[in-house]
Each structure stands twice: as C-alpha cells, then as structure tokens.
Amino acid sequence: MAESKCPASRLMNTGGGGIKNRDWWPDALKLNILRQHTPVTNPLGQDFDYVAAFKSLDYEGVKKDLTALMTDSQDWWPADFGHYGGLFIRMAWHSAGTYRVHDGRGGGGEGQQRFAPLNSWPDNVSLDKARRLLWPIKQKYGNKISWADLMILAGNVALESMGFQTAGFSGGRPDTWEADESVYWGGENTWLGNNVRYAHGHEGKADQGVLDGSQETKSDIHTRELESPLGAAHMGLIYVNPEGPDGNPDPVAAARDIRVTFGRMAMNDEETVALIAGGHSFGKTHGAAPDSNVEAEPEGAPIEQQGLGWKNKHNSGKGPDTITSGLEVTWTATPTKWSNKYLEYLFKYDWELTKSPAGANQWVAKKAEPIIPDAYDSSKKHLPTMLTTDLSLRFDPEYEKISRRFLENPDQFADAFAKAWFKLTHRDMGPRSRYVGPEVPAEDFIWQDPVPAVTHPVVDERDIPQLKKDILATGLDVSQLVSTAWASASTFRGSDKRGGANGARIRLAPQKDWEVNNPRQLRHVLQKLEQVQQTFNSRAPAAGGKKVSLADVIVLAGVAGVEQAARNAGHHDVTVPFTPGRADASQEQTDVESVDHLQPFADGFRNYGKSTKRVKTESFLVDRAQLLTLSAPELTVLLGGLRVLGANYDGSGRGVFTKRPGALTNDFFVNLLDMGTEWKATGDADVYEGKDRRSGEKKWTASRVDLVFGSQAELRAISEVYAQADGGQKFVRDFVSAWDKVMNLDRFDLKKGSNLPTVRHYDIVAAQWHVLHEAFAKQNINLVLNSTTRYVDDLAGSGFLIYEGPEKGWVNHQEEYNEWLKASRKGGYDALNLYFFSSYSPGATGYCQWPTPLAETDELTFYKDSCQLSAMTMPGFTVEQGAFESWNLGHLAIHETGHWFGLNHTFAGGCSEPGDFVADTPAQLTQIYGCPVGSDSCPNQPGLDPIHNYMGYTDDSCTDEFTPGQQERMFQTFFGVRRK
Fold first, then answer.
1. In this protein, which residues make up the domain named Plant heme peroxidase family profile (predicted)?
2. Which residues, in sequence order, are CB contacts of 742 under 8 Å at separation 6+?
3. How many CA atoms lie within 13 A of 806 on its CB side?
C-alpha cells in the first residue's frame, strides 16, 4: 500500500499572517491597548476570585517548600554556592523593578516577566531557568497562588533563608495571560540600544547577547536627559548599565544614571543605596566567557527548547560556565548569608579596573587576599570584585554619606533595606486595601497614599436625596459639578492602582494647583461643597452619628450634576449609582512629589494639552483611557457626554457640539457626523473649525481629540451607534454606566478581589437579614431592622485582633476595640447590635454577649453588649471565597442572637441536669458537628441529640428549629432583663 503524502505543491498561509494595517499606516491611532486582558484571554474565567483563592492557600506550606527549594540544587541548572537565593532575589527584583512612576506601568503586579519582551530581555538572561525551578511549587498549589505573587514571594523567602528579616509580604497580584502592549519600553529596535531615549545614545546590538563592554565612551553622560516615561538606560535593561553609562567605567557618571533610573522607580537616595547594597550582599554575576557563546533568547529559540533561551555553547553551559551579564563578580565572602561585608569591602579596598572573562569592565581590589569563595569549587578563592555601579556608592558624594552611615550602623542598613525591598516589590499594588495574607505589615507607608479609616456611620439612602438637593441648591451648574468630580476620580491609574476620588486629594497640594483642574474654579466649587459637608455633619448627633466626607460629597456632586443633565435632556427617570464610604486624606498623608506624577501631560477628556513632536493628542487620550481601564465604547461615550456637559478644563466651547450645553444629549455625535459641516485646520496645529458647507458660516471649533471620533474608523463606528435616531437612550444609559465605573475605580473595598470584600455588599447584608428575620418570626419575635452601617478600618474589620506580622502574630487590641464599641453601638439594652467582621479571629465564627442585669454604673457591659461574627458565615459567600464550609447559610447569626436572647448551647451541662435550662431540649453530651441523624450521646436521657436545633454546632444545612421552651425563655429574658 502506497504511503499517503500531503500535496506539497500548494503554498499555504494562515489567519493572522501577512502585512498588517500598522505596516501600511504606522502612525494610525491604535486602540489595541483598550482590548487587553479581557475574559476571553483568561483561562480561569471572569468569575474566578483570586484573592479568595489566595486566602485559602497553605501559605506556610508554600514558604516551607520555597525554603527547601533554595538548597535543592538541580543538575540541569545547578545552584551557585549550593543556594538559589541570589537567583530568586534577582528574579523578584527584575519582576518588580520595571515599574516607573511617570505612568505607573511595569512592575511585578501581573506576572509579565513570563511574556515577551520581558522574558527575552538581555537583563533577564537565566531567569527563564528560575521560573522553571519554581514550576513544581506553582503546579502543586495551583490557582491559589499566581505567578506574579509566587515570583515576589520567592525573593522574600530567598532573603529569609539567608538570614535576613524582611518587612513582610502581601499577596493579591492576579496573573494576566498575555503581554501588556500598553507599556512603552522605548523606541530602539536593537537590544541594549539607547539612541532614542537619549539625545546622544548608541544603537546597541542587533544580535542577542549580554552587555557589551566595548561601547564607545560618550562625552554627554553627565548632562543627558532620559526620555519620559522610561526608567531604564538601555533597551532590554531593568535599570542602568552596570559597566557604567554606555559602557564607560566611570562610577561618578554612573551615579547620575542610577539616581535618575531609581528615582523613576520612586526610590530616593537612601532607598537606592539600601537596595543596591542589600541586594549585592548575596550571590554573584556570571560572565564565564564572551557572549558569542550565547544563542537566541526564549522568544527566538527553537521550539524544542520549550520556552527556554540563551543556550550557552561554552563548555557545560551552566554552573561555572554560566554567562548572563558578562560580568564575573562575587561581592562578599558570605554570598549566601546576610552581612555588612558588601559595605565593608567597598570602603576597605582601593579598586582598579579590569576585564571579566567575557570582556566586560569590572573592578578588582588592590592589595587584597583571595577571600571570595568559588561558586562551584570549594578549594578555590578569588579576589574581591565590584561593578562600576557599586563604586558609585562610594564616589558619589551623596551616596557615599549614606553608605558610610550604613556601614557604621548595620541595624539602620538592615531596616532601610527591608523597607526599600518591601516598597520595591509592592509599589505597584496600590492601597493597603488590596493587601492580603498573614504577613502584611501593620505599618502604613506614605508611598501607599494612605487614606484614613472611616470610623463613623456613613450616609445611606435616607440621606442621599437631601444631600443632592443641598448640592444643587449651592447654585453650582452642571459643568462645575461634573468637571470637579471627574477631576477628582480620573486621577486613577489602573497600572499601579494609584489616584482616584477616595481621599479627596483634589483639595490638597499638588492637585489643587494643577492647570488641568482650573484652580480658580476648583477653589470656588470646593468651598461650596465643603459648606454642604459641614452643614450635614453638624447634624451628626441627631442623625445617629452619620457623617459624610468631602470625598463622598465631590463624587455625589457629580452624580447630582449628571442626573440634572439627564433631566435637562428630558430623561427624568435616570438614577446614577452612588456608594458612600470614602474618607478625606490630610496633607501630611500626601507625598506631594509622588502624587504630582499623577498629573496628566494631556487629558483629552477635558480638551487639555497639546501634541508633541512624537505624540499626537489623540494618542494621549487613548493612553489615558487605558490607564482608566476603559474600553473603546466607554472612552467614546464618556468623551461625548463630557463635551455636552461643558467639562472642558478652561470652560471653552471647543468640541461642545450642542446648542443646549448642560443637557445629557447625544448632540456631540449627531453634529460631529453631520455631513453639512466641513472641517478645516487653523493656525494652531491642534485646533480646527467646522463651517457650514453651503453658507460658509462658522459652526463649531474642535480639537484633534474631538475630530478623531469622526476620522478613526473604529471610533467612528462606535460614534455612529450613539448618533443614530435610536441612540439617545442608549447613550444616556452607557454614559451613566461608564461614569459610575470611573467614580469607583479606586474603591477596592467594593470589588471582588479586594481584601475588604463583599461583607459590605447590600445583597449579602439583605440576605443575612432575611434569614435572621424569618427564623425569629416563626417564634413570634418580630425583629425590626433599624439601620446598617459600614466601617472601613483594621480594628473594625477584625474584631479587636489584628495580624501584625509573623513575629507578633495576632495582637489583642481589646481596649481600643472597647472604645470603638462605645462610639459605634446604637440603641438601648433591648437593641440587638450585630457586627460582621471581614477579617475575624482565625478559625472563629462568632461570639455574643450573654444578657446580664445591668448595674447603673456598669457602662462597659452595656457597650460590649452585641453579637460579633465572621462575615464568612453570611449567606452568599462560597467556600472558595473564604466562607466556612459548614456554616455559610447565615444560621450562625441566628445562633448568636439566640445567646443574646438568653439561650444556652444545647450541649450545655452534658447529660446532667439542668442542661441548657430548657426542659424540652433533649440532653446532649458534647458539641456535635456535621449532621449525624439518629445520634444519641445521652442514651439514658429521653430523646435523640437535637441536631436540628439552632443552638448546637451542627452544619447550617442541618439546623432549622427552636423548641417551644426556648421560645418561652427568649420572651422571659427579653422582657425580664433587656426591656426591663
């Protein structure tokens, strides 16, 4: 039988191949960055809650496995000095170290080191091996820990396994599943080039390899300016060239590059010295031979290498033959142990320039003994060596002062490195409300943009309508209300989770003085809104202690403005969602320099900013939309709505294509797409005039940002939807939805994946109330819901026990909690106060105060009279989200309320009298779990164990009853003790 053969004569191509639109029109506006990281690309599905999964992780088990891995050297990639610590520190550092302050992009928060281009950068040589070493641990714990978290945690454990005490760790970094195309890594098209980011850079290397020590010495290295928003000196590096600027081994010149690049990663001089000196206290660099031995990076490697790259032809290609940076430096005599030796050697020796085996510039100690161990041969010793950038810490005047202080004060050095390392690895995670895990440090850091806890009841649906009326009564118009709320909320960046309306930092420096915020108008608006806030808060005692923050008032003002604009357009049934709970930050809680990086260079939503030689304003608009996590339709509807609401930063009419400004209409799109208008450029490159085609009469003025919605094909297609005859209602509905999204972008306390999760969701509270009310209604006890209040702070969230790190563990804050109870408890002794805590004591489900006759002076017993429960017992939470497996239907609230009414456990007293003091509940020897039908632990007493009674410990699915005797006891206790 003849062998079957494929028809070889036909040439086949596949979908996605061929010349692309961007090849034909490279300068065309690209919207692809608005379509990233969607549920379509996520194999876990959009309903997967990573934070809930992480909370169920055997965290100590992961750390134990990571610690074991550190010294479990593998033949296929041996460990230097028998310890992988240095490799994993570098992996974590290079994961987090891509962060830059100008746009908040980069960093370790998405696990992007797994994807191109980062997985193939010259600076990341060998980190492909580090991730493969981690794979068995990732495989073991699955989706309970992301790659993003695991890479950072591995760096922490590496440090701890070598004797260093870290400042803590937070999980909560969900993985992404594709390369982040929104990040501008530079315009160079060769590895290690910098001819675009600097005015006088060099072109780099067309082929793949390690750092080239033979680069031309440049004369402008002291004065050059690094292109914004970049943070690295070369394409493909994390920070700077360790050989010196462009390979020039000048430690003083290198210090300038270090200061710029680390500064753009949000580090000051002290943090920079601590990180370099601390990180270089461990491990070594690798330059066993010239880079001509190194083959293609992972993205360019053959398929059989299975995602690994940089195959090394030098001898074994691993262990002592490893080539990464091309430098061959081991900094200390104790490369697997924390010490102060890095700084000791830095100042102890004089240094002379030498070459590594790969030909890279490095330094060797003069008149020194060979004290440095070999990584693979214990019989060998080497002379101390340093990088050019190491010597910068000695020869730069400012760095030298800090380095000497650390040398003389090792404890200060250790503390500074611990805090700088925590900042490095957590800088892009945003506020503490996103932190999760048992090792989250208790300390607040100013770089986290802290916002005070909400320690008072917040406004609710009974207060909000009147507040809206009060806001509108100030005389502020729609434009002022909307533009102020937008200015406050739109500072948010999805990249590093900074900014947003929470904190009301728009009233503080530097935001209050930003040109884009129209400072003069802003002062006027804020003065009016502060009056509304003060008036409401002055009534707090009469309102049950409820107060409203200015942050909430600012957002509510925008809500009121949008609703008024909808009414102005004839849409009288429009309600814009509003969720209170924000707080006001102080100037002392605000790092002015850091917050100033949130200031937009251009903001097309408010028609602010000009094009540059490289970037047109419409590209700035798309960039800003991506930072706001907007889709192309959301971008379109928001801009069209903001225009007709008159939200331009300067109050101008540019792009306001309507005869009825202040009304929420689709006029922007209708008039933009009107073929009766002809557009022409003016003398200003960013300004255009629209004239009537017949009469030549001027109708409108517009910016490039306005006109792009009629010129760019995808944006025009969306605009047409809103300009259609049936598009008006959809426009209003979509605008309200997108507006609400932006107003709440920083409300991590309201989102799935938050560490302050859904305990505050109204549906969860409503479901719990329904379960509780129905159970007691069957006993002729009519519970009446008086109020619900949300609190956001560590104390209120945990019920007096707060986790303060691995050393202190869960710390009792009972005295502070008692004071909090005094301020929060409502009603008399006959008022049931139920507290549900988002982070209750480990393993605990609930507790309730027993009814005790009060003495006149017994104030504390009164204030502590309440039931306290874990929110994870409420109906609506799943086990995957952290709910208790046996108690998640809300019956624990019934059980604890039974205690409040004077009922004891059914197993109280065991098989002996008087048991639980109720005659008709059968005796039970001890607590019973599950739902063991037919159980009889007191066979000499009548009846079976009362497994279906609410006052036992059986599963929620098993309990559904009180006895008549229990009903009678509840009435007696309430009227005899509580109501009395």
1. 127-437, 470-760
2. 486, 489, 490, 492, 628, 630, 638
3. 13
Shared domain check, 619 and 684: yes
**Does 686 share its domain with 825?**
no
Q: How far is CA 197 from CA 59, 97, 217, 368, 802, in A?
A: 42, 18, 17, 40, 47
258 lies in the same domain as 309: yes
Q: How far apart are the first and last CA of the chain?
A: 101
pTM of the full structure: 0.79
Q: Are residues 839 and 878 in the same domain?
A: yes
Helices 550-568 and 478-489 meet at what angle, rounded to 10? 130
Q: How high is the mean pLDDT of the chain?
A: 91
Domain limits at 672?
602-724
CATH code at position 580? 1.10.520.10
How many other C-beta atoms are found inside a 10 Å radius of the C-beta of residue 377? 9
* 379-389 CB burial, b ≥16 within 10 A, e <16: eeebbbbbbbb
Give how many domains the chain has, as a whole number.
4
Residues 175/217, Cβ–Cβ less than 8 Å: no
CATH number of residue 607's parent domain: 1.10.420.10
Nearest one of 773, 754, 760, 757 to 890, comparing CA atoms: 773
Answer whether residue 52 is part of any domain: no
Reduced to 3 states, what is the DSSP secondary structure of residue 606?
A: helix
DSSP string, 265-318: TT--HHHHHHHHHHHTTS-B--BSS-GGGB---GGGS-GGGTT----B-STTSS
Annotated binding site: 280
Binding-site members for heme are 280
Using the predicted structure, report yes or no on whether residue 725 has a pLDDT greater than 70: yes
Residues 362 and 466 in one domain: no
Residue in this structure with the two tokens 């259609």, named with its chain if needed? 724
* Three-state secondary-structure class, residue 155: helix
Beta strands in 711-798 (DSSP E): none
What's the chain's length in residues?
A: 980
The per-residue pLDDT for range 315-337, each reduced to its tens digit, is: 999 999 999 999 999 999 999 99
Query: 684 with 648, same domain?
Result: yes
Q: C-alpha 796: how far from its chain's center?
A: 22
Residue 753 has pLDDT above 50, yes or no: no
Residues with catalytic annotation? Answer: 94
For the cut 70, the answer to whether the pLDDT of residue 211 exceeds it is no
**H or E element: which one contains 556?**
helix 550-568
